[in-house]
Specification:
single chain; alpha+beta; four-stranded antiparallel beta sheet; 9 strands
Length: 207
Amino acid sequence: MHFFKLGIKISSKFIRGHNYAVISDFADVARIHLRRYKLDATGSLLPTKDGITVTPSVWLALVRQFAAIDQAFDDGKVFVIKDCLMLSRTVIENVTYIICQRYFQRKDFSRKFLTPVSMLKETEWKVLKDIQKQITSRTVSIMFGRVFLKLLRKEVAKHIPFPKSDYDCIDAEIVLTTSMVELLCNHIQENISSLFICYGCNVVAQH
């Protein structure tokens, strides 16, 4: 797991909690955790129940909306990410917190909020925004590194159940990886090209 510290230790005399952004790839699934950790008697970090866990897609959506989220807070509103994560700003005992809470939608379309939540002080929220690129980079590295490679090998094993040698698997991995990279490149090129298509003349002609 990869830790990104958000909080600052308040006292060296007493064991205090600290908020961390933690990236894990347990069971070949990448997750981002905004969670409070504590130190045990040996000085090791232990996770507490205070925090949330999100998927890479939710994290990326959160990153893209940081500016809009801050604007919503200034307007006294809450902000919803992908209809599963709600963010709000509140003041408790003269301290401003950013509250991140997960929820899911019931069959009757009502929301069921999950507990506990992640409570970040404004300073911690600022740190999260400052290190967002590092967290995203590490998440992508895990997804397309260890996790993707394991899934790729599983897929290879389906097509080559009894490989004659390790070279058979390596060759198959190269072919599959190359094909996927080519598809991704083509997709990106097509989307970039579409951004430069100008319909201005056609629109003017129609009017």
